[in-house]
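Please fill in the sequence for the structure shown.

STRUCTURE ENCODING:
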């Protein structure tokens, strides 16, 4: 049974998939104190939040069972992604479900800002019939500058065009061609700032976008321009905006988000030119149902080991690629695990080569799984698909992935090479049609071994009697041999025996094997 803690308000209709799942216990409580949250998270397998719950490193460290954090929405700036990755916790979000609601909210803010609707409403509610004071401006023929042309930016642009606005947009991923297709003008950030009568930001809050709209960039804007932020507090520098409104450079602003939320007694709210909502962009029945459903499904997929649609802290893989790669997952992990268990020294470099059927596929997920298999020897079960790369890079281990045209006669081949400060070892494996995974090469020796169960790898001299002596000694220790493969470079030269046996080999047996004539090295492992 998976325990899923939901610590922010979520649509109950939206989380139906969770509530109806027989393997899930959903605990919903949006009023937990910090201490209560620490207690609840300690026994939870999953956590689902919106933007209120601050998912800090401390919280993640109190959650030994936690496998996934689901964000019912887009922005993940309230989640410590590094901490999640360090602890192998997958973070998923629901980026599509609230796009329309937020774009519509931006339009509502745009029109309210142009026509002073909140201010006029406020006066009228106080029984003051003011007409002269609230003369607005038309949107038609005005220029809307959009910074951040992703899902929401694009939807806002289409709606603004319906109001006969001219739209100019900047986004590092927006090309001239894409802009033409969307029917907007492509501009640099400076051009957008210089031409906008209304400027709206729709970027994530990241290092590069923090205070993107600041004292200097506001200086580039037209006098009397207006600014909207329905994305994230902090993209527009609040002090700079305050000053620009006070000195008349900026005629007004519409804000749905603030650097610190909830924003109570905020200086910007004291300005009549500023209209505001309390982070309501995604607050519609439809958006909340959408994001709750999307995140519930992804969280359950992570818990049940399925393919994830919207991972945040690991690369997303299309379902077609996933389908092609899935059969290779076990092979890649077992090859990595086998090789690291027989390699001595401090790990420095891992090279993974793919050929045959894998030549034209994005094999990054397979490399990640190989690395997980390799690191398990050192880190145990704490390493997983999410933190394998980061763990390797934190330890200074270099990972390379290459495609190779040499298939060595196999329809598909995965080769892993490990370099340590002492040696370089190589293993190759393949998926045999209908027969599953096979190790087909260990260093220079050709073998045919199923990578599972208890294995013994013996380096020896290719001499008569060596194999028999190993068999007899194992029999003395009641170790039954299931399969045995021998590979040699040349007659009488170096050779390797790989045995699969029915139980784990105990230390004294391994020691005695090491003392047998012509045996040079004995390594035992369990896959
Ligand atoms: N107010 C709300 O309730 C609400 C609701 C939903 C989303 N949001 C926020 O809206 C923002 C946009 O969401 P989205 O779904 O459109 O995201 P998105 O990922 O689809 O789009 C973001 C775009 O910003 C662009 N970008 C990144 N850095 C940039 C930079 N330096 N300059 C210009 N563009 C840059 C990206 O290339 C991307 O195209 C996010 O911050 C999200 O958290 C707010
Ligand atoms: O990033 C988002 O999805 C929005 O800011 C919505 O946040 P919320 O779920 O707290 O409304």
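FILLED IN BY: designer on duty
SEQUENCE:
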């Amino acid at each position: 049974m998976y325990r899923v803690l939901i610590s922010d308000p979520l649509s109950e209709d939206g989380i139906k998939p969770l509530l109806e799942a027989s393997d899930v216990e959903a605990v919903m409580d949006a009023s937990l104190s910090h201490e209560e949250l620490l207690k609840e998270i300690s026994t939870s397998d999953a956590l689902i939040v919106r933007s209120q719950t601050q998912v800090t490193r401390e919280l993640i460290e109190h959650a030994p069972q936690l496998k996934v954090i689901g964000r019912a929405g887009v922005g993940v700036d309230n989640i410590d992604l590094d901490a999640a990755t360090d602890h192998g916790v997958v973070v998923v979000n629901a980026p599509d479900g609230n796009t329309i609601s937020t774009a519509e909210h931006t339009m509502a803010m745009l029109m309210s800002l142009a026509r002073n609707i909140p201010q006029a409403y406020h006066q009228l509610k106080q029984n003051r019939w003011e007409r002269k004071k609230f003369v607005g401006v038309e949107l038609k023929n005005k220029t809307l500058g959009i910074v951040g042309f992703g899902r929401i930016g694009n939807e806002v642009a289409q709606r603004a065009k319906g109001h006969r606005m001219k739209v100019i947009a900047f986004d590092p991923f927006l090309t001239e061609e894409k802009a033409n297709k969307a029917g907007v003008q492509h501009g640099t950030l400076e051009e957008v700032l210089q031409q906008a009568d209304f400027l709206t930001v729709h970027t994530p809050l990241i290092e590069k976008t923090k205070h993107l709209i600041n004292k200097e960039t506001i200086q580039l804007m037209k006098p009397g321009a207006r600014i909207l932020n329905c994305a994230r507090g902090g993209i527009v520098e609040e002090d700079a905006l305050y000053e620009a409104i006070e000195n008349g450079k900026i005629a007004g602003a519409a804000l749905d988000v603030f650097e610190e939320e909830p924003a109570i007694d905020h200086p910007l709210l004291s300005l009549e030119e500023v209209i505001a909502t309390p982070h309501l962009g995604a607050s519609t029945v439809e958006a909340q149902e959408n994001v709750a459903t999307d995140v519930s499904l992804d969280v359950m997929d992570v818990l049940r080991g399925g393919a994830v649609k919207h991972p945040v802290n690991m690369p997303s893989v299309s379902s077609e690629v996933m389908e092609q790669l899935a059969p290779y997952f076990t092979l890649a992990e077992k090859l990595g695990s086998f090789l690291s268990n027989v390699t001595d020294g401090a790990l420095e470099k891992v090279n993974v080569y793919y050929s045959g059927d894998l030549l034209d596929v994005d094999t990054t997920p397979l490399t990640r799984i190989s690395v997980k298999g390799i690191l398990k020897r050192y880190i145990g079960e704490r390493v997983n698909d999410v933190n394998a790369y980061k763990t390797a890079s934190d330890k200074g281990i270099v990972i390379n992935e290459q495609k190779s045209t040499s298939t060595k006669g196999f329809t598909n081949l995965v080769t892993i090479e490990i370099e340590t400060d002492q040696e370089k070892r190589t293993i190759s494996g393949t998926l045999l049609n209908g027969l599953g995974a096979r190790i087909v090469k260990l260093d220079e020796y050709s073998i045919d071994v199923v990578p599972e169960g208890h294995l013994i790898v013996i380096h020896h001299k290719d001499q008569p009697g060596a194999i028999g002596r190993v068999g007899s000694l194992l029999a003395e220790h009641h170790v039954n041999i299931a399969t045995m493969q021998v590979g040699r470079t040349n007659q009488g030269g170096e050779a390797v025996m790989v045995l699969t046996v029915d139980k784990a080999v105990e230390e004294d047996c391994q020691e005695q094997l090491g003392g047998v004539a012509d045996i040079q090295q004995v390594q035992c492992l369990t896959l």
